[in-house]
Every structure is written in structure tokens, then in C-alpha cells.
Fold:
Amino acid sequence: MRTFLPPVLLPGLLLRLLLRLWVGLPLCWLSPAQAGADAVTPAMAAQADRLLQSALEKNIAWDVVRSLTTEVGPRLAGTPAEARARRWAVARLRAMGLDNPREEPFQVPLWRRGAERAEILTPFPQPLVVTALGGSTATGPEGVRGTVVSFPSLDALRAAAPGSLAGKVVFIDEPMARSRDGSGYARAVGKRRAAAYLAAERGAVAALIRSVGTSSHRFAHAGQMRRVLEEGESGVPTAALAAPDADQLRRALGYGEPVQVSLLLTPRSLPPAASGNVVAEIVGREAPQEIVLVGAHLDSWDLGTGAVDDGAGVGIVLGALDVLLRELPRPPRRTIRVVLFGAEEVGLVGAWAYLQRHAASLPQHIIGTESDFGAGDIWRFDSRVGEAQLATIDAMAALLRPLGIERGNNAARGGPDMKYLREAGMPVVGLLQDGSDYFDLHHTPDDTLDKIAPGDLDQNVAAYAAFLYLAAESEAYFR
Structure:
């Protein structure tokens, strides 16, 4: 018996078939509302709402962060502590019931902190609170001393002539602006990455920078200088000053007399050591080869316990997966893959290793995102997808609106560890958290569990659970 399709349905079915054959074909034959409705059905919307409600009733993520920061603690890339974190993660993912939890190893250059001490010698002798920047060279056991030359910005240092700072100590006194979206970081971080090398080219013996952070407390913010993936000459020994100490040094310079400081840093750069990513999946029921990727990074700096950066992200994504495993009556159409990236803090080494390992399957990476901006509520949902898929993203965003999340733009970055995948063509979304106070804690001894209260992360878990389900259950292709 031959079955005939009603004429009114035929154009839509033909269009969807053509779109599967030619992903880039504009959706000029469908209204945006119809395109979004096709990708997010009423049944999917109802299920997403149930996931939201379930996530808001439990403090799953906080328990994950408590476990990680207590049982492992600080997790500097390449150290035995980071290895313990990988073992912790594999065991946790297995206990949750995810498929094929595993380590994907790689090597990372190993840098270890040593002694760090600074002081004003003249005209007003007093100690300064500093921390060595990741990748800094050592001063030697006797330290170095020199007269301070202050610059208001990295660009001002760049403008100084080569050799013009012989024997001097560079001080870049550039504050970081506080903002909800963390946009002040993009400019301020430049001095952390490049000061050591620009100072060396100009003959300086050391460099100090005002910490890349927004805290006024008397501790310094650590962080990597040049990425370990990049090659270049060694710079001068370089440290970050706590903000009040940077203020103090500025005031001392304001008297118009030469200010001489001493600096002792004894870090060690060691041969490459083992690091790795931890990966697991919820395998899709119909299209297991198609991957919806979600990440966080497992490593941290060594001063605090990495609760906010990025224990919170680990808790959020594992919490979302826990909700999906408990609440979905069957696996979603596509595979959801979680990647807990290693060695993020020292230059996205795990992100690069993931791209190299999975390059052949990159076309099957449908969309990705990462949680790596602390414990604040999500307030905006950005995307970076093909124009033809914006209606689908809008339909997803509408389901997140009850959480207080507004629809954003189509210029998402997806998170730090999404960088290389995004540049290689993978669509991404950004679930933007309120980061107004994130850089008060970022890379400091104050990044500890007490800064996150039970319940703080639940809204994040709800948003991630709903998005991951919708992306994995949908038939939309976002490229």
C-alpha cells in the first residue's frame, strides 16, 4: 500500500532533507519561529523544564567542589597533586554512571614555586607582598636589586628604547577594571604575559606588576606569563604585587626620590611532566558519533585550593550530568562528552592536546561550551553558530529565561578551553556568569571553599543541564 504525504507537509520535509545534505543552505523558506520550533519540540521543552526544577532542588555541584578541594586541594599542572585530581575525577565519573571515564595523557613543562620576597630598600625600608608569576625565571639565591622605573601600562613599557633600563626594576602600575562580564581582564592580563620579556629586552634586572585582579586585600594574584606552548627567550624574574603594596610603591615613588627595591625569587623550571585530560560520555541513543561537548578545567594554581577557579566549573558540569543521568528516561539522541581539561592555567595545554587527539572527529563535534568563571549566577546566553541556526538558539534561550538568563549575542567564545576547537570551526555557546567579584579571588590564596555557599551553583547546574539536553536531543546542526 502506498502512503501519500499531505501536500501541506511536503515542502517542510523536503527542506529538512536538503538542509541535512547542505548544512549551509539559508533558512529562507522557513520563518525563524518555525525553524526553532522544529528543533525544540514541545516534548523537549517540557523535559527541559523538568530538568531545571530538579537541578534547583539539590546542591549537587557544591558537594563536588567540597570533595575536590578537600581530598585533593591545590592542583598545579604537572604535579603529583594534579595526578591525584585526575584519579579523583575518573573515580567520580565512574561512580556517577558515565560511560568510559578515562585519562588522555600528555606532557607539560613543569614549573615549581620557590621562595619569594621583596622589599623597599630606600628611601623607606619595608617589606612588599609578592608572588612569582608562572614561568618566571629565578633571581638566584642572593636576589637582585635595582632602582624602580614605573610605567602606567604595558604599552608605555613597550615604547621604552631597547637597553634604556639597564640595571633597573620595571614596575607596571596598571589597575584592572571591575566588570560583570570580566572584560577588564582582557586588557590587564597583557602585562602579566609580556612584562618579563619586554623588560629583559630593555636591560632591566627584574619586573614587578600590579596584580591582575580587583581585590584590595593584601595578597598577590598568581598567573602564567607567556603560554608554555609558545617559544621565546627567557625573561627577567617577575612577580605580582598585592594591590595595597602596589599602592604603597606608587606613593613612595611620588616623593620624587629614587626608590630602590630588592627581589628574591627561586622558582624552578623542570623537565616535562605528566598531565592529562579526563574524559567521559553519556553515549547517544541514535547518533552516538555526534558530540555535544561540555568542559571545565581540573588544574588550579598552587596558592589556594582552586574552589572558584575552577572547582566551581567542575562542580557545575558534573552536577548537570548527574541531573541528566537521574532524570532522563533514556539517553539523548547525541552523545554528551565531558572533558575536565588539565594544564589550563599554564596556557591551555590540555585544550591543545584534546584538539590534536580528536582532530579526525572534529566535524562530529556539534557544539561545545565550558564553565570557567566562578560561582556567580548565569545572566546571559551567548552563541556562535551559523545564522540559519539562530532561531534554534533563541528557542533554547527562551527556556532559560525563568532562571533570569537573557539572550545575548552571536559572538560567544565558549570558554578558555574551547579556544582551539572554536577556531577550528566548532560552534560554541557561552553561559555567562556574573563575574563582578570573580577577580577578587582569581589565582590567590583566598580561592577556597568558604567563598562558595551550598546552593550558589544550582542555577548554573540547571542552565547547563537544560542546554546540554536540548543540544543533544535536537536534530539541529549549528555550523
